[in-house]
């Protein structure tokens, strides 16, 4: 039988964390919302998400969030605004 690997779960985001995430993304908006998909731009975006995750985790009181988790949450927030 196949044993499925469960995805990582963390605690739910609170309102202050969402505000912090949006504030950090707004600061780096020109880089993160760039439509280019070439290698150089992708590397810059990846490094920016890493910097953003470090800044988020240093200011957050609710535990550790990976850059993958933060990026996913931001994408869900953008979809919810449409």
Task: Explain the overall architecture.
This protein has 82 residues and is mostly helical. The protein has helices spanning 15-27, 29-32, 39-59, 67-81. The longest helix has 21 residues, at 39-59. The mean pLDDT is 89. It holds the Pfam family Myb_DNA-bind_5. Keywords: Transcription, Transcription regulation. Self-associates forming complexes of several hundred monomers.
Distance between the termini: 41 Å
Uncertain runs are none
Q: H/E order of the elements?
A: HHHH
The class by helix and strand makeup works out as mainly alpha
General form: globular
* Rg result: 14 Å
Largest sheet: none
The average pLDDT value, as a whole number, equals 89
Number of extended strands: 0
Number of helices: 4
What would you say about this model in short?
With 82 residues, the chain is mainly α.
Layout of helices and strands:
Layout: H1 15-27, H2 29-32, H3 39-59, H4 67-81
Helix pairs in contact: 1-3, 3-4
Question: Could you name the key traits of this structure?
Answer:
82 residues; mainly alpha; transcription regulation; Regulatory protein zeste
């Amino acid at each position: 039988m196949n044993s499925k690997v469960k995805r990582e779960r963390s605690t739910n985001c609170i309102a202050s964390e969402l505000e912090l995430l949006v504030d950090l993304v707004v600061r780096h908006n020109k880089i993160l919302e760039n439509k280019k998909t070439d290698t150089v731009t992708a590397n810059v975006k990846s490094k920016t998400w890493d910097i953003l995750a470090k800044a988020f985790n240093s200011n957050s009181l609710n535990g550790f969030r990976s850059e993958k988790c933060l990026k996913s949450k931001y994408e869900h927030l953008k979809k919810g605004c449409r």
